[in-house]
């Protein structure tokens, strides 16, 4: 009796383990069958690029499916870091900015994807940013760059010549003065320009366009001319001042999209946003285009220098080994021409730019197709806003506070930049 | 003898039954409080102990933490941003605590009467406390807007030629945040004071009135002493709340302009969650914890001396 009771128990356990094993082997990766990869994403409802990439990849690789784990866009890095630390992060994750790449890489959270990188060759812009000690840890699928957006109708109304590919900041300032006067004379309430409250709008361009400028140097004198120009433009009334923009929580999309500003320096992602907003009615209908960001001087007119961080894809170091091949295949697709064409077809700027990709981008209804916009899209030297360093996040914090102090008029430009240098040297560069 | 023989096992059985009954009752009691204690242990005590341990390391969330001894604390001594955050926290507390205390007590005294529509006014005063902090910050930022805000327009109407820049000015941003903080929290503390006022015996007031005490004398010599337990509780809670202020500042000014409204909680957030320096952030948390403990201990000591 006793024995038979044990036999029943053993048989039950065996049956249970068989069921469990069967469940385990249900993971298709083990059997070489269909694979489902999980991937991080944010605001899926208004960010179609993730689904577009997944669908385009699945169409070419029916055995591999990509499913999303959605994060909050603003707290993306915090939430992802928590999930990685807890071991519950997705198989493939997006590196939303370069600032935190070092954290993931030095924390052994990214798989070596050098083989994927070598298959991409040199066509993927921004790839070098993801290399550490000779190993590549992520590949870029998007490479945004900052342009000068302009409202053709408002320029015509003010009687000011629209931007040219060769514009310097002096040309920009001159046009802003002309626009301010012309728009006022024509009875338009629009401002000449809108500069958003982010530190990037001043610091990103200054860092990219100043020879020898270094974010981690602790010397921020190179920012002075850019800040003085921004302050001068807000003092003259050519653009909304920082205090009003921050206290009224102004949205840059509304400022340009509802024709309250004739010019705006902004990232390339705004092309897709404005096209979508004009289609939906959230933005007014008007003629617009984009030009290269104004340059420090004429020496870079053939290849205008701008800034922007790539958006990368990495593989979670804790991924199931059986899924690695599929994940690498997905990365190669997303960063290659296939993914680039898919992204370009919805107005998103991919990392890989080829003639096919450019064709797909300008084939999107609503994207301006004039020569200047084409030139801005295809021809630029994009420097990273956040050069990869263990100190980048901390330095950006100090510079964010410096930005608000200068733009609000709380601190004189030189004094604030000196103070920023001192703080970076003592609080960041000497810290462990 | 026979009693011992017969009664022994019975008595032993009764003892066992009693012991089992007692144990069962204890088990029942423990089973009721255990979930709470487990929750407290796992979600409060554990993290606090971990915080102290992490503050002596350079942990950056991934991988192993390296023991750095007192390095994080000695670095704090030289960290000018930390000094700024500490001073700003004290600045905020020094104004926020007495203002909230005085206004909430005043409001409670005003609404402790049998007035028409008093329930509506009490609800209205409490309403900001349950309103979303983000909504409050956005609304007040609009009110504080330098050129278009109604506050500066009113000031202009009364002849103020150069009204403050409020949240866009490094000297006025902290007063602006304090105003909103006081406005938001005074309804909550008003409720506590209202509850305290219910405990003041009316006959004491009556006796004082018969003795010829005026309203101020009755308030000072009757109401305030009777309210002592409430005022003590309110002071302790207000102090801890002021030292920990975070969300309001994060949404209203993000610590700026510059570092004019940077407070300790936000500095902890920056170092920990933005820069992933959890060891250093933990050290700042320990300092904040110590600050709260010391001030609270002083408050307890003063209260004990007064009661004694």
TrEMBL record, chain A:
<dbReference type="Pfam" id="PF01547">
    <property type="entry name" value="SBP_bac_1"/>
</dbReference>
<keyword id="KW-0732">Signal</keyword>
<dbReference type="InterPro" id="IPR050490">
    <property type="entry name" value="Bact_solute-bd_prot1"/>
</dbReference>
<feature type="signal peptide">
    <location>
        <begin position="1"/>
        <end position="22"/>
    </location>
</feature>
<dbReference type="InterPro" id="IPR006059">
    <property type="entry name" value="SBP"/>
</dbReference>
<protein>
    <submittedName>
        <fullName>Carbohydrate ABC transporter substrate-binding protein (CUT1 family)</fullName>
    </submittedName>
</protein>
TrEMBL record, chain B:
<dbReference type="Pfam" id="PF00528">
    <property type="entry name" value="BPD_transp_1"/>
</dbReference>
<feature type="transmembrane region" description="Helical">
    <location>
        <begin position="278"/>
        <end position="302"/>
    </location>
</feature>
<feature type="transmembrane region" description="Helical">
    <location>
        <begin position="230"/>
        <end position="252"/>
    </location>
</feature>
<dbReference type="GO" id="GO:0055085">
    <property type="term" value="P:transmembrane transport"/>
</dbReference>
<keyword id="KW-0812">Transmembrane</keyword>
<keyword id="KW-0472">Membrane</keyword>
<protein>
    <submittedName>
        <fullName>Carbohydrate ABC transporter membrane protein 1 (CUT1 family)</fullName>
    </submittedName>
</protein>
<comment type="similarity">
    <text>Belongs to the binding-protein-dependent transport system permease family.</text>
</comment>
<feature type="transmembrane region" description="Helical">
    <location>
        <begin position="90"/>
        <end position="111"/>
    </location>
</feature>
<dbReference type="GO" id="GO:0005886">
    <property type="term" value="C:plasma membrane"/>
</dbReference>
<keyword id="KW-1133">Transmembrane helix</keyword>
<dbReference type="InterPro" id="IPR000515">
    <property type="entry name" value="MetI-like"/>
</dbReference>
<feature type="transmembrane region" description="Helical">
    <location>
        <begin position="123"/>
        <end position="144"/>
    </location>
</feature>
<dbReference type="InterPro" id="IPR051393">
    <property type="entry name" value="ABC_transporter_permease"/>
</dbReference>
<feature type="domain" description="ABC transmembrane type-1">
    <location>
        <begin position="86"/>
        <end position="299"/>
    </location>
</feature>
<feature type="transmembrane region" description="Helical">
    <location>
        <begin position="26"/>
        <end position="54"/>
    </location>
</feature>
<keyword id="KW-0813">Transport</keyword>
<dbReference type="InterPro" id="IPR035906">
    <property type="entry name" value="MetI-like_sf"/>
</dbReference>
<keyword id="KW-1003">Cell membrane</keyword>
<feature type="transmembrane region" description="Helical">
    <location>
        <begin position="164"/>
        <end position="183"/>
    </location>
</feature>
């Amino acid at each position: 009796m006793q024995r038979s009771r044990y036999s029943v128990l053993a048989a039950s356990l065996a049956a249970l383990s068989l069921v469990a094993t069967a469940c385990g082997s249900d993971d298709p990766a083990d059997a070489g069958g269909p694979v489902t990869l999980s991937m991080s994403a944010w605001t899926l409802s208004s960010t179609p690029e993730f689904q577009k990439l997944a669908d385009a990849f699945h169409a070419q690789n029916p055995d591999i499916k990509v499913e999303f784990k959605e994060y909050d866009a603003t707290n993306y890095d915090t939430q992802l870091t928590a999930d990685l630390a807890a071991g519950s992060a997705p198989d493939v994750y997006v590196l939303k900015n370069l600032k935190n790449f070092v954290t993931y890489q030095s924390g052994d959270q990214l798989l070596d994807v050098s083989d994927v990188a070598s298959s991409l060759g040199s066509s993927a812009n921004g790839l070098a940013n993801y290399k550490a000690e000779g190993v590549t840890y992520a590949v870029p699928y998007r490479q945004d760059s900052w342009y000068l957006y302009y409202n053709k109708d408002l320029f015509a109304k003010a009687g000011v010549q629209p931007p040219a590919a060769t514009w310097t900041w002096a040309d920009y300032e001159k046009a802003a003065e002309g626009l301010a006067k012309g728009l006022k004379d024509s009875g338009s309430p629009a401002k000449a320009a809108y500069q958003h409250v982010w530190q990037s709008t001043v610091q990103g361009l200054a860092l990219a366009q100043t020879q020898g400028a270094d974010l981690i140097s602790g010397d921020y004198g190179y920012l002075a001319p850019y800040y003085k120009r921004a302050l001068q433009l807000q003092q003259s009334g050519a653009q909304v001042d920082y205090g009003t923009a921050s206290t009224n929580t102004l949205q840059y999309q509304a400022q340009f999209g509802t024709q309250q500003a004739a010019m705006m320096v902004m990232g390339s992602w705004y092309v897709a946003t404005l096209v979508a907003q004009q289609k939906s009615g959230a933005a007014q209908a008007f003629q617009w285009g984009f030009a290269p960001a104004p340059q420090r001087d004429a020496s870079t007119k053939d290849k205008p220098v701008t800034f922007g961080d790539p958006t990368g894809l990495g593989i979670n170091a804790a991924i199931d080994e059986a899924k690695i091949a599929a994940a690498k295949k997905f990365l190669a697709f997303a960063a290659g021409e296939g993914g680039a064409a898919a992204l370009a077809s919805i107005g998103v700027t991919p990392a890989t730019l080829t003639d096919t990709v450019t064709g797909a981008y300008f084939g999107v209804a609503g994207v301006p197709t004039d020569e200047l916009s084409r030139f801005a899209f295809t021809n630029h030297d994009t420097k990273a806003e956040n050069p990869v360093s263990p100190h980048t996040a901390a330095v950006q914090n100090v510079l964010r506070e410096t930005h608000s102090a200068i733009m609000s008029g709380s601190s004189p430009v030189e004094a604030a930049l000196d103070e920023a240098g001192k703080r970076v040297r003592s609080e960041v560069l000497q810290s462990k | 003898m026979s009693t011992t023989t017969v009664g022994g096992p019975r008595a032993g059985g009764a003892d066992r039954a009693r012991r089992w009954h007692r144990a069962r009752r204890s088990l029942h009691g423990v089973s009721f409080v255990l979930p709470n204690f487990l929750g407290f242990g796992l979600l409060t005590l554990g993290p606090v102990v971990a915080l102290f341990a992490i503050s002596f390391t350079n942990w950056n969330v991934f991988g192993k933490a390296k023991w750095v001894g007192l390095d994080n604390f000695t670095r704090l001594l030289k960290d000018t941003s930390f000094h700024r955050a500490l001073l700003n926290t004290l600045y905020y507390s020094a104004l926020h605590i007495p203002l909230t205390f005085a206004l909430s007590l005043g409001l409670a005294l005003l609404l402790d009467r049998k007035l028409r529509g008093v329930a509506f006014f009490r609800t209205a005063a409490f309403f900001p406390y349950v309103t979303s902090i983000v909504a409050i910050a956005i609304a007040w930022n609009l009110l504080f807007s330098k050129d278009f805000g109604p506050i500066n327009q009113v000031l202009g109407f009364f002849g103020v030629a150069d009204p403050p820049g409020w949240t866009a000015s490094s000297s006025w941003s902290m007063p602006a945040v304090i105003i909103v903080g006081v406005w938001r929290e005074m309804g909550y503390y008003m409720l506590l004071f209202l509850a305290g006022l219910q405990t003041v015996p009316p006959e004491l007031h009556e006796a004082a009135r018969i003795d010829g005490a005026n309203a101020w004398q009755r308030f000072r010599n009757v109401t305030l002493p009777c309210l002592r337990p409430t005022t003590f509780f309110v002071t302790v809670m207000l102090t801890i709340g002021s030292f920990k202020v975070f969300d309001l500042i994060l949404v209203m000014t993000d610590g700026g302009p510059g570092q004019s409204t940077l407070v300790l909680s936000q500095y902890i957030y920056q170092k920990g969650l933005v820069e992933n320096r959890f060891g250093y952030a933990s050290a700042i948390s320990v300092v904040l914890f110590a600050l709260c403990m010391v001030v609270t201990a002083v408050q307890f000591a003063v209260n004990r001396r007064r009661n004694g």
